From TrEMBL:
This is S-adenosylmethionine-dependent methyltransferase. GO terms for biological process: methylation. It comes from the Eukaryota. Residues 44-137 form the Methyltransferase type domain. Signal peptide: none annotated. It holds the Pfam family Methyltransf_11. It comes from Maudiozyma humilis. CDD domains: AdoMet_MTases. Keywords: Methyltransferase, Transferase. GO terms for molecular function: S-adenosylmethionine-dependent methyltransferase activity. PANTHER family: METHYLTRANSF_11 DOMAIN-CONTAINING PROTEIN, METHYLTRANSFERASE TYPE 11 DOMAIN-CONTAINING PROTEIN. Belongs to the methyltransferase superfamily. InterPro entries: Diverse_substrate_MTase, Methyltransf_11, SAM-dependent_MTases_sf.
Length: 288
């Protein structure tokens, strides 16, 4: 399992995470629910964090439980959504964590399973799902500043993915996972763990010919505006940023350096100017 500051840094700022991270569009929830072919009794959310993904399914299932190995994240989830169920369970060890085999109608993971060992989590999800149960996982990769020059994208790649900067806290597997929207072997891997009817959507892959989307009516389109002040807080909510700050005490703040470089390179006048963004996103849907 890759090391993450969500778990290892005692003062990881889960409150900030909750206040600055985006939620997911209703169209994604609708897509997942339309795909689901079975009962709606039990849902588990793997790597639920502060509950941003979990709450979206509360009205669809009789019982929804958010699972995460980080007490810091779970404490915020409990405070924000006290009426819901939360448990400290690692995605790699669902059965050991108390989830019964063949007891779950749907397992979801929003922006989370890259922190698990994919072989373990896929095996575990398959074991706890009822026959025909749904497994849905999805990610936002990065915001694309659609009115700024490509330098905005290149700077994101430099600060988030390169070994020189915060990317050194990603494993090679994680970097490849994000850059290739799950990787070329994902369908085969899911099939090898017994999943079928696999659906995969990519939105806003960055290519030399512009942003590419593999469907005409994407269900997972995340768009809006963001100021550089908001973006700075978003970068500061990364576990990568917390790890960097822990390991570089006394150095200039890496998130501020990143955003200031982006501001200058792209000629953004102020930190409060609303900038149009579309997120690069992807999801996988499959069933047992
Ligand atoms: C980026 S957050 C996503 C939280 C939430 N699902 C959301 O959409 O905002 C990733 C979460 O994965 C959790 N995580 C890390 N390792 C994990 C593991 N092995 N199993 C399950 N969750 C894990 C972290 O603690 C963190 O809460």
């Amino acid at each position: 399992m890759p090391e993450t500051s969500y778990l290892t840094v005692k003062n990881f700022d889960s409150e900030r995470y909750h206040s600055v991270r985006p939620s997911y569009p209703q169209s994604l929830v609708d897509k997942i629910m339309a795909y689901h072919d079975g009962s709606c009794d039990e849902l588990i959310d793997i790597g639920c964090g502060t509950g941003i993904s979990t709450v979206l399914f509360a009205s669809h299932f009789k019982h929804v439980v958010g699972l995460d190995p980080s007490d810091s994240m779970l404490n915020v989830a409990k405070e924000k959504f006290p009426e819901m169920s939360w448990a400290n369970v690692n995605g790699d060890e669902l059965v050991k964590g108390g989830i019964q085999p063949e007891s779950v109608d749907m397992a979801v993971g929003g922006e989370s399973i890259h922190w698990c060992d994919l072989d373990k989590v896929f095996q575990q999800v398959n074991q706890v799902l009822k026959p025909k149960g749904t497994f849905a996982f999805w990610f936002y990769v990065q915001p694309e500043f659609i009115e700024l020059s490509r330098e905005a994208h290149d700077l994101y790649v430099k600060y988030c993915y390169s070994d020189e900067y915060m990317g050194k806290y990603l494993t090679a597997f994680q970097r490849n996972f994000f850059v290739t929207f799950g990787g070329k072997d994902m369908v085969q891997k899911l099939q090898s763990y017994g999943f079928k009817d696999i659906e995969h959507e990519v939105v806003n892959e960055f290519t030399d010919k512009g942003l590419y989307t593999n469907t005409k009516t994407p269900a997972f389109l995340m768009e809006g505006t963001i100021t550089l002040n908001d973006f700075l807080q978003f970068v500061k909510s990364w576990s990568l940023y917390t790890s960097w700050t822990r390991d570089h005490p006394g150095e200039p703040d890496i998130a501020e350096k990143f955003v200031s470089e982006l501001k200058d390179a792209c000629g953004v006048k102020t930190m409060d100017e609303p900038l149009k963004i579309e997120w690069a996103t992807f999801y996988y849907l499959c069933r047992k």
